[in-house]
Amino acid sequence: MLCFVMTGLSRLRHRLKPWGQALLDVIFPRTCRVCDQLLRERDPSHPLQEWFCPACEDALPLLEAPYCQVCAEPYDGAAEALFRCSNCAERKFAFEFAVAGYRAQDEVRELIHKFKYNHKLELRGALADLLHGALLEPRLAAEDLKQWTLVPVPLHRARERQREFNQSWEMCRELARRTGIPAVNAMKRQRATGRQTRLTRAQRLQNLRSAFAMKRRFAGANSRLLGPQVLLVDDVFTTGATAHECARVLRKEAGVQKVVVIAVARG
User: Fold this and answer.
1) Does residue 26 surpass a pLDDT of 70?
2) Range(s) of the domain holding residue 233
3) How confident is the model at residue 222, as a pLDDT?
4) Which end of the chain has the least Cβ crowding within 10 Å, N or C?
């Protein structure tokens, strides 16, 4: 019950005028999502101040160049701003490229974990604002993203019943509210695949074959409802196996021409 109250307060704050937000802050003070410190007056041009104190915001592990231009794998040595890493050199993905706002470390990893596994649904706004950082990547910043569609990586219905929500869809909806980019829950996970953390990339790809499909109203003749360009949304991008299979289905079953993966964090 508390998580739904907190989520409702977060949404209410975004709808209120500044004086209304200030009044709500007096009644329900905002605290940092990392250290619980009381937050100061917000700056509308700085959305992360809604969620983090300055010290914790500065500590968030940003994903900064140089990183692989395909999979966003960060590189700590000297390199060009964009390069193709050795893992991607011989591989063909069904998506164009993947980007993330942060590394899956420290505070960011902990926030994602609380959101997914501790039912902290009120964190979806904070994670959507962190996800927004991926849209600032130069290749996306140059696009008119309102002509794209946000599509979440789907959960199997059994996993979604257990968790009570799909974290990627919740972030999609919040990001759509902030940006005006349309969001559509267009895919389904038709086969449970289990956890893949201990599988090799080849094993993951094999495990994911035929795991995803378009929902009927977005496939075939109805694919025009989705549009030709998709931002595929996930919380963490790791090997790219899940994103590749989702992108392959989007292209094959819905006629999507371009898929870019955006994630809160790069694992």
Assistant:
1) no
2) 61-266
3) 65
4) N
Per-residue pLDDT, 12: 47
What is the pLDDT at residue 227? 86
Rounded Cα distance between 47 and 44, Å, is 6
Residue 47 to residues 53, 108, 148, 245: CA-CA distances in angstroms?
12, 16, 23, 33
CB burial readout 141-178, b (16+ within 10 A) else e:
eeeebeebbbbbbbbbeeeeeeeeebbbbbbbebbbee
How many domains is the chain partitioned into structurally? 2
Structure-token match 């899956």, residue found: 104
SS3 of 185, please?
Answer: coil
- Cis amide leading into 66 (omega within 30): yes
Average pLDDT on 201-220 reads: 82
pLDDT top residue among 259 and 157: 259
Does one domain contain both 206 and 165?
yes
Q: Are residues 24 and 102 in the same domain?
A: no
